[in-house]
Amino acid sequence: xxxxxxxxxxxxxxxxxxxxxxxxxxxxxxxxxxxxxxxxxxxxxxxxxxxxxxxxxxxxxxxxxxxxxxxxxxxxxxxxxxxxxxxxxxxxxxxxxxxxxxxxxxxxxxxxxxxxxxxxxxxxxxxxxxxxxxxxxxxxxxxxxxxxxxxxxxxxxxxxxxxxxxxxxxxxxxxxxxxxxxxxxxxxxxxxxxxxxxxxxxxxxxxxxxxxxxxxxxxxxxxxxxxxxxxxxxxxxxxxxxxxxxxxxxxxxxxxxxxxxxxxxxxxxxxxxxxxxxxxxxxxxxxxxxxxxxxxxxxxxxxxxxxxxxxxxxxxxxxxxxxxxxxxxxxxxxxxxxxxxxxxxxxxxxxxxxxxxxxxxxxxxxxxxxxxxxxxxxxxxxxxxxxxxxxxxxxxxxxxxxxxxxxxxxxxxxxxxxxxxxxxxxxxxxxxxxxxxxx
Length: 439
Known about the structure:
It comes from Phyllobacterium zundukense. This is Amidase. Keywords: Plasmid. The structure is a single chain. The protein has 439 residues and is of the alpha/beta class. The protein contains 16 helices and eleven strands. The protein is globular and about 55 Å long. Mean pLDDT is 96; it is low at 1-12.
């Protein structure tokens, strides 16, 4: 028997329409970030859908997500609309002929889709800057970046514009903004969620997953978009959970807020019975310099963009265009070799994790950088932000980030990771850790 899919405030007086109206009011608030967070808002469609779900509820029908307000990242196809990936060069593309499978599954499960969220153009940076449509501000400090590329997704959740959001993660694009904005984000094993109907950055690394305020809401949405059953919660606490600190560069150069929050979280988990130990992971260490990720990602991005660059190259963000063109410097032999090395590292990582339930480490080594810092050195900021997240895309691990900052601090994320295919167990552990740290 699985746990309930229904929101905690369902009942005779609960109105899905009221909740959608509240979300839309947050988006329309001129003092808020709605105009930069959303590129398209489906306000009338959302109200109609919510009213229909209220009627079905009164008739005794329950859907899996039952009116949950959800935003989708601008790289997912919606029938009849142009998928721009928040980039001007795609504004003359043909409208999508059908919904992406993720969108179809959300609709069928009773989610109310609110609109398309802003992102880094073409999803090619975890920094989050968008010179085409503007950049949403971090919800905690508007002088700082929300991270990217799922920038609008994270801000939409953090500010109550939606309950959950759909993002994508190629080297950290769900986990980085989730960590910098103080929400939960899940990067599933890559093929857990279908990639069809999503504008691709790297066919090898792209993953689609949810962001929400809680692990449970992420689990509910992930079950729907992956076409799987929501598993029963098995853990009520963290006693006996085997967690490994990977050490090396992954715990180095942490700013004081991140190191303080992470050390505090580890102490609390240990006191609650979690078994935390230091362990070297050879396969993980082999990905740390980022060269394997850059080789594969740059070639696959160039393959996707080559024709569009020839036609609309002048409309690209110069920094993203330069990043894509780096793929020309990689030989076919280099690319094939990188794919083979990756396959071996994935198998080695699985073996390395045989006696461990999950890795535990900071999601991002720093708090959200200022916009001034990002504009001055976007490449340097990008390298710092993705340092701890990108290796897990190379290894096709599943990963979850949880907010762990103290009240009054800038957001800090704690990341848990496990080998491919261990998503359900990892999410179960994440929920127990979330409960422990919130107590």
